[in-house]
Design goal:
two-stranded antiparallel sheet; MetI-like fold; mainly alpha; 2 domains
């Protein structure tokens, strides 16, 4: 089984396992009244349909109308909103990956710059996103730019760091024999970089890109909540949460669609990685 098909099979098995665990937890809770057997300790989460709808209820909610006035299904509505989020995530990931790759090369080739900068890059990732997102939204709005750009910037912010760190690791893991050979024939540093270090860093770069894809989707969803774009699966999740008491399954359905979209997004990166690296020798 090829790499992409294996990843799809693993993702499908994982989703199926989560569904089985979900239903098993509900059945156990119903059987023992949401109390651990032989104790008075309550279950961490109640197993009522309001707190944990059945998987079948969540799936059937996707087929229900998106509004009381009729129209398309909730699934089609969520897919349209998800496409907006994925577009923002893609832009953010590409920008973040480009910045991360260039930054990794600079950190590798200018050691003094790397020692001075890398600690601050690590510190930048400790800033809470819920605090940073509104600041970015204000800055972008003050520049007169549309709100979706703020979402893209947030996605790029979360994307660049894993690409930087993994690419830097790959650049430093080049085969010493190849590096010494080029140096022995007086090859310039740029030739060592282009012909040895960058090719050896490609697997690590794609590892960082997979992490960046996940981070970009999360950043876009959080950014939509702060930017007030009026579109995107983040706003749809917020709306479903607002009406949770009326239709709890809708919130879980929105989360399910967002999760599946994130998985598909990452699997596209896996496919690109497989197409790029499949002809590399071991």
């Amino acid at each position: 089984m090829s790499g992409p098909l294996r990843s799809v099979a693993i993702a499908a098995a994982l989703i199926g396992s989560v569904g089985l665990v979900w239903e098993g937890y509900k059945a156990l809770g119903r059987a023992f009244g949401d109390v651990l057997p032989g104790t008075n300790i309550p279950f961490p989460v109640a197993t009522t349909d309001a707190a944990m709808p059945h998987v079948a209820q969540i799936v059937s909610a996707l087929a229900s109308p998106a509004s009381a006035a009729g129209g398309g299904s909730l699934l089609s509505y969520y897919l349209v909103e998800t496409s907006v989020t994925l577009r923002e995530s893609l832009y953010g990931m590409l920008i973040g990956a480009a910045i991360g790759a260039v930054l990794a090369v600079v950190l590798r080739e200018i050691p003094l710059f790397g020692r001075a900068t890398l600690p601050w890059l690590i510190v930048s990732q400790t800033i809470p996103l819920v605090a940073l997102a509104p600041i970015i939204v204000v800055w972008v709005g003050g520049a007169g730019l549309p709100s979706w750009i703020a979402v893209t910037v947030i996605a790029a912010y979360l994307s660049f760091f894993p690409v930087t760190l993994n690419t830097l690791t790959g650049l430093n893991s080049a085969d010493p024999l190849h590096v010494e050979f080029l140096r022995s024939i007086s090859a310039p540093r740029w030739r060592v970089l282009v012909h040895v270090r960058i090719p050896s860093a490609l697997p690590s770069f794609f590892t960082g890109l997979r992490l960046a894809a996940t981070a970009a989707v999360i950043g876009a969803i959080v950014g939509e909540l702060s930017a007030g774009t009026g579109a995107g699966i983040g706003r749809a999740i917020l709306t479903a949460a607002y009406y949770y008491s009326l239709a709890p399954a809708n919130l879980y359905a929105a989360i399910l669609v967002a999760s599946l979209a994130g998985i598909v997004f990452v699997q596209i990166i896996v496919l690109v990685e497989w197409l790029t690296l499949r002809k590399r020798s071991s």
